[in-house]
Amino acid sequence: QTIPIKARGGKVRAGDFAAPYAKGSGLGGWLDSLPRILAADSFRALTDALVRARQAGKPIVWGLGGHVIKCGLAPVLIDLMQRGYATAFAMNGSAAIHDFEIAIAGCTSEDVEAVLPDGSFGTAEETGREMNRAIVKGDRDSLGIGEALGRRLEEIADPAFASRSLLREAYRLSRPVTVHVAVGTDTPHTHPEADGAAIGHGSHRDFRLFCSLVGELGQGGIYLNIGSAVLLPEV
Q1: How buried is residue 9: exposed, middle or buried, by Cβ count under 10 Å (0-12/13-18/19+)?
Q2: Which of 17, 50, 166, 176 is deepest in the core (most CB within 10 A)?
Q3: To 10 degrees, the CA torsion angle through 137, 140, 143, 145?
Q4: pLDDT in tens, 139-157
Q5: Which helix (H) or strand (E) holds 222?
Q6: How far apart are CA 231 and CA 49, in angstroms?
Q7: Burial letters 56-90, b for 16+ CB under 10 A, else e
Q8: Cα 52 from chain centroid?
């Protein structure tokens, strides 16, 4: 048996199609030109939700994997934070490492394939030493890892790169940053000054802080998972 196509209908209709960008219409015109299908429609819904949350004064929490930071998006996130479109951040360990290295040296991201064979991967002295010292001191002061690292970067960050560090800028603005690690999974854990108890205490404090942030998300708050495939979704 067959049926008329117009009677059948379809999930995709011509009215949902994209339109060519109209010169001079700006970013808003570009968003309106996207198809109202799948990812483009989801992206449009996301931007609308961010605006509503900002207007309502609701939390907007960004969960960040390492690639988000090492591919250079920290300045954009800092700007969103300053404008009220990011009220807190949750990082996995690699995101914190990349951000910390940018702050102290202006560079990050090793050529892993090249340095794994000789055992030199993850052995940067300043990264391991300063991150672990910050975490240990933060534990003594009952801080989570995120706040402890931001506080340390306020002291030692290279002035040429400090403003590009999300950890440091969030600390200056008193915005929460939580760092969630599994002991042994991040390069600073192999450094001689690593203290498993301090790392565990700090990350657990951040977990409890994250829980309090999640508790405020009802009725219009937003949590975004950007670039973390395993650890942050599990958290």
Answers
A1: exposed
A2: 166
A3: 40
A4: 999 999 999 999 999 999 9
A5: strand 222-226
A6: 25
A7: eebbbbbbbbbebbbeebbeebbebbeeebbbbbb
A8: 21
Model pLDDT for residues 2-16, shown as the tens digit of each residue: 999 999 999 999 999
Among 200, 92, 188, residue whose Cα is nearest residue 138? 200
What are the tokens at 137?
């001191």
Find, among 196, 165, 164, 168, the residue nearest to 181 by Cα: 196
Three-class SS of residue 94? helix
For residue 122, the model assigns a pLDDT of 87
* Residue 110 banded pLDDT, cuts 50, 70, 90: confident
Q: How far apart are CA 11 and CA 232, in angstroms?
A: 33
Q: 88-92 and 222-226 as β-strands: parallel, antiparallel, unpaired?
A: unpaired
For all residues of the chain together, what is the average pLDDT?
Answer: 95
The type of residue at 172 is R
- Global pTM? 0.91
The neighbouring-strand residues paired with 78 are none
For tokens 């300043």, what's the residue? Answer: 126
Retrieve residue 129's tokens.
């030493």
For position 142, what pLDDT does the model report? 98
Q: Is pLDDT above 90 for 36?
A: yes
Burial of 137 (0-12, 13-18, 19+ CB in 10 A): middle
